[in-house]
Amino acid sequence: MRTTLLKIVSAAALMLGMSIGSAVADEYPSKPITLILPLGAGGSHDLNARVFTSIIPQYLNQAMIVKLMPGASGQTGTAAAATAPADGYTLLFSHNYYDQLQQHVNDLPYDTTKDFVTVARLNSARVCLIVRADSPFKTIDELFEFGRANPGKLDFSHSGQWGAGMVPGARLLQWAKVNANMTPYRGGGPSLKALLAGDADFTLQFPVTIQNQGDAVRTLACAADEKKLGSPPTFASLGFPGEIGQMHRIVMAPRGIPADRLAKLREAFVKLQGDKTYKRLMGRIGEETNFMSGEDYEALRPKQSEAYKALVESMTSG
């Protein structure tokens, strides 16, 4: 009887131990999370990622590691994230142009609508047009007047085909009736380097990136009033019709991620918004923390898709 009882107790203890061990093993996240950026180093996404990945481990109890994967106008990194296991250990830090615009112009190896779900919209920003500090162009009117008088003589460096720099830049050139050379680079950082190296006459960048250049560049106009850049004229004040140049920075997960893991990630990003260190660091790089929840941004994505489809049709017609 005693031997039998010991066997039963031992078996129960073994099963309990296995159950506890399994529960510990299933605790998410139990290892570092990889955050893929489909963009190059030195751009606004890179700067933003370095900030929030340094703080969010406090709310996840695990590190979040930035992995830069630029190439093919964002398709290299996006495809890597789309084909990663939907287990919450691989995320994508992208933007609305790659997410909902490129599908209307490229034959993609993935479907962003079906393959990704939004964790959070970290923030949004609007672009500015800049030239080097030693540029002969003091105003955007001078730049465009030269471009109209000298077709094909202006060089525009941008962050990649149908990306956050190319689209508003192309729309501005279309509106101003300027024929310029448009050269794609692997992200905002490389396109800025091209400008600074003298390989381009102008580019479009975000305020956070421009501030870091000090006196090396001159801002000619912005999509919104940017007091920290000296309040250059806005595109609207110059006569540009409609909204232009707003980029949403979004953290996404492969669709199919377990609901409890998605909820935990979303909760961590919500908690991040109240973190004083996070706010201070974002302010230091000149960024707003105009956060939007993953649920709210998911509702926005279909509307973006329709608007971007119309945009592509207007830019490619004729």
Task: Give the SSE string.
Answer: HEHHEHEHHEEHEHEHEHEEHHEH
Per the CATH scheme, the topology name of the largest domain is D-Maltodextrin-Binding Protein, domain 2
Our Rg estimate from Cα atoms comes to 23 Å
- How are the strands of the biggest sheet laid out side by side? 2-1-3-10-4-11
Which residues form runs of ≥5 with pLDDT under 50? 1-25
Cα distance spanning the termini: 91 Å
Whole-number average pLDDT? 89
Q: Tell me the strand percentage band.
A: 15-25%
The geometry reads as globular
In CATH, the architecture of the largest domain is 3-Layer(aba) Sandwich
**CATH class identity of the largest domain:** Alpha Beta
Return the structural class: alpha/beta
Largest sheet: 6 strands, mixed
Helical fraction: 40-55%
Summarize the structure.
The protein is an alpha/beta fold.
Question: How would you explain this protein's 3D organization?
Answer:
This protein has 318 residues and is of the alpha/beta class. It has two domains: 31-124 and 247-316, D-Maltodextrin-Binding Protein, domain 2; 128-229, 3-Layer(aba) Sandwich (D-Maltodextrin-Binding Protein, domain 2). The protein is 44% helix and 19% strand. The chain has helices at 2-26, 44-55, 57-60, 75-82, 96-101, 112-115, 140-149, 166-176, 188-196, 207-211, 259-272, 276-284, 294-316; strands spanning 33-37, 64-68, 90-95, 116-126, 128-132, 155-158, 181-184, 202-205, 217-222, 246-254, 292-293. The protein has a six-stranded mixed sheet, sandwiched between helices. Helix 2 (44-55) packs antiparallel against helix 12 (276-284). The chain is globular. The termini are far apart.
